[in-house]
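Page header: ASSEMBLY MODEL / two components / 856 residues total.
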Amino acid sequence: MKLFIIILIFCTTLSAIDLNLPSSAIQNATSGLVLILPSPSAAKSNPACSFTGIETSATYLFSMEDLPLYNFHVQYKYHDFGFHIGNSFLAHPLYKESSSIISLNHTYQGFSIGSSIRYLYNIVEEYHEDSAIITDVGLLWQNGKISTGLSIHNVTHSRFLEEQLPIVYLWESCFSITQKSKLSIGLEKETDFDFAFKIAGRYDIHKVLTVLSSYQYEPDRIGVGAIFNLKDFSLCYSVRTHQYLSLNHYISLNYAF
Amino acid sequence: MRSKILLILFLLTTILFAEDSEEKLFSFEDETYHSTELSDLLQNIKKNPINVNIADEKEFSQIPWLSEKDIKKIISYRITDKITNLENLYKIGIDAVTINELEDYITFSSTFDLKLKQTSRVELHQPKQYLPSTLKYFQKTILNINNFKFGFISQKDEGENNLIDYYSYFVEYSNKNILRKLIIGKYRLALGQGILFAPKLGMSKSGAATSVPVKKFNPLKPYTSSYEIWEMEGAATNIKLSIFNFVPYYSNTAISANLDTLKCITSFNESGLHLDENKKNNVNEMIYGLATKYTLQDHSFGLNFAKINFDHNFTNHARKNKYSAISADFIINRNSFPTFGEIAYAQEKTAGVIGCKFGENELRHLLLLRYYQKDFPTWHGNPFSSQSRFDNEVGLYYGMTIIPFKRTKINCYFDLWSFPETRYFEKMPTVGSEQFIQLEKKFDTNSLRFTIQHKDKEKYISLDEAKIRDFERTTFRADWWQDINNFRFKTRCELVTEYLTNDDIHKNGILAYEEIKWKINKLTLIGQVTVYHSDVLHYMYEHNVDGIMQNSILKGDGAYSYFVLKYNILKKIEIQFKVSDHWNTKDKMRLYLQIVSSF
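Prediction written out in full:
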């Protein structure tokens, strides 16, 4: 029974593999938009994103104690190239999913292009065990106060247990309204789901404190987060609503080098 | 485990159950944000302009166009110099646009010791000709003598026989010393974010996405509204001791309620229409309490207590007829991060609202969380909520104001709410959401505004069977204002669609109007012609004589028009007249005649 509960939480079909979950507290606060405040885990959403650092995050999905999700991401930039490795691990006693990722991106005159390969492993006790290799691609254009990105997950149409894994398109544009304020809007389309419209705001109250907030339409959700910056370290805590389930609390620790 | 299964079922089920929640009055038209109280206030200030040479900060803050910075500039300037004309204001740094708006609301000369304002209004509504007395009558007299204000307001609705079917009266004494205000008669209280006490006609959401949801009240005022219920009658005073304010109050008044056979209260008559004298003022309500507030320059904390007694029991046993209520409220007004909230407890139920604003002028955010337990007494309150009876609601509101370019403003808000407990017949949490985006662009003599509003909620709708259905309503609206000499033209085009998801029923409607306003010296003329072709309801704000805020509801195929005239016969007397009619429907004409005099 627990297995079905977990699966049904996330989707209305039984294809609950490769869930499009936020991979950091920042993404939880911004409804998955990444350009508004780049972090090492942003490369998982858009492989063209570069941000040198280490990031680790944890959450209990929708405040369910038996559904922890852990993330670890490292990114390093060398000249015009960015390298990223990371892992996300969903650890229910009966349901486990691990997604390991390696990404490479290249930047030329404001344009960035990146690609990542993910190894997805999923096991449901006494039900199934399988793995898949998935390719994601991303584009990013940065010009002064505006940056725009497009990413496509699972361009190779990889399959898992004979079923095609979801293909996700995410377009995002970020505008610097002032030095302290940014606004990001985005559209996401996932296989078998409607377009999800997203809007997120960022405000740097102080060099130590940044506030993030966002709204997503279809399904309707609001995310809020605060980032405490201490030298090269930053600690982010965020919450995001769900219409029927409990709040999703998320915490991340980030070190920029 | 069982609760988890229920949660999953909730998630998967798209047919959800809810009641048809009552919309807040004027919930969409941001122009109609001017509640009766605000409208009255502006009219009052216009007739009795604020003297810039003696007014204090609080008096200045009544003028909505003056910022806190502007007020401080004026106050610091007049310490050394007298302000004698508008040019002085420009000289001290008030911008020309603001000065232009202020012109009608300020004066530079000394105040009069005696002022009298008299408003008399008659209304005739043709559709109500069948009633024994078709006339609707309203009058308001306010007399100011130095620190005293005397007021008498009366109203008679169509069908009511008594010329003073409803009345309000008060004597108000105000001072700048310890005894700031004393009111004997009818008054209204407004505390904190309005959970326990607030004016009933204020609204929660509008195009001003980051300012309207934050409630800012003058705690104690005479009752000048013609909303015929929930006023308080007795005595109240505002005492200021250093940084503390104390407002003790006592009220004992009769209200109109619907009673069952056991003489228990089933509901209250909020319409104000008393066609049956036996149902009029048939319940007594006694309230007493104390509101305290500690105020410093950038923050304030309040603690409030009230004891409320009805002399009849309620049919609904969850509601007690005698109870105590307490609330605590705060505003921390730091420059970049104002935070505000109120929490209240009554009848073993809790209600709370907390919010914060952050950002700069160019990008402002407002987050507001509310939680009102089912059966929390809502009688005198009106905090931020998505329904008029606000108990049994949990919600999160996110508003943004963006100024990406000069003279361009984008306001948007997103509101998610849930009614967690049983409503009507269905035991189930029901949810709703609302999205609103408005783009405003101003040019020299033109302004454009585009608005999209989408509501998605579970609503009790009766088709082949009455049940709760998924309901979506989307409004697209374009407005264009154009100023040519003394004329102002306003053109609107509105498209509304409604969709019942599970029944796959679509309805839609279109409305367009042209409004012309012409103002020269003592004369103001406003005319509007509206055409509509619609299967759904359109809500349209329309101009009226002063003191009436009207939101017309139009449906079907037809045309509607109105004409308003305001003319200053003498310097102190203004005649106001309005006629409105539906072109293709008989007996729908309405006439208004109002005389306003100020001496």
